Amino acid sequence: MSMRAFTAAAGVAAVLTGGCHSSGQTAAGATPRPPTASAPATPSATGSPLPSTDLPYRPQIDPSQFGATVDNPWFPLKPGTTFVYEGVKDGKPSRDVYTVTDRIKTIIGVPCVVVHDTLYLAGKVGEETFDYYSQDAQGNVWYFGEDTEELNAKGKVTSTEGTWHAGVDGAAPGVYITAEPVVGQAFRQEYYKGQAEDQFRAVDTSASITVPYGSFNDALMTEERPKLEPDVLDHKFYVRGVGDVAELSAKGPKETDRLVSITTG
Predict the structure, then answer these.
(1) Cβ atoms < 10 Å from Cβ of 157
(2) How confident is the model at residue 40 (pLDDT cuts 50, 70, 90)?
(3) What residues form DSSP beta bridges with 215?
(4) Which CA distances in Å does 251 have to 24, 103, 234, 235, 248?
């Protein structure tokens, strides 16, 4: 998936075992509560298997519990807002233009806001993606899929690998970010077996980060591990009231993405 959509992902907190983690309630909608060190390892439809297992992941989604308005302060997606990021990808300077549209796409009955993500490599469009997010009644943001195209230097589409929609060919939505992040909290962000199986874990809620847009001392830092790429580890930083401000590779190919500007329509 694209840099911004970050192969959405998540495993379970290290304290959990078995197929799915429990939040102390069923997830007939979308109600993942942050796991704690004493969280019981009992089933919950919103949890996910540990990265080392292949147990089923089948979140039960109640469309009536979701809306296309995404106002989670850690990842606000207000239509008309454009986030611009700059960095390095595939050894080339990158510029990522991430625009929240006013379009809504319905996936398995759930209304999702459509985000248009255009990635420029060395000044030319290298990837174009439409990402689909929805927020549940508890304020957790879920990722329901993406349509992506990779382009060559002549602008010709060379691949659509990474495209997936929840409900198609066994794909399922994941929790992109929760309403109240806590250290140790972890979830799948997406699930399409063999194609999209990224995971995230919250590792710090008071991290310091400086990007062209500003300096922050109270950022949420997560680690993201693509299950299909075990040698890759990324750190992402979110700032309350701003959103995603940076992605920095910690292991694997060098990739960086730092927030430069935010404009509203």
Answers:
(1) 10
(2) very low
(3) 210
(4) 34, 36, 7, 9, 9
Cβ neighbours of residue 125 closer than 8 Å, sequence gap 6 or more: 118, 119, 151, 155
Burial status of residue 141 (CB atoms within 10 A of its CB: 0-12, 13-18, 19 or more): buried
CB atoms within 10 A of CB 109: 11
Strand, helix or coil for residue 65: helix
| Whole-prediction pTM | 0.80
Joined together, the tokens standing for residue 37 give 């060190």
Cα 38-44-47 angle, rounded to 5 deg: 80
SS3 64: helix
* Rounded-to-integer distance, Cα 240 and Cα 237, Å: 10
Tokens encoding 262: 């935010």
- pLDDT band at 228; cut points 50, 70, 90: confident
**127-168 tens-digit pLDDT:** 999 999 999 999 999 999 999 999 888 889 999 988 999 999
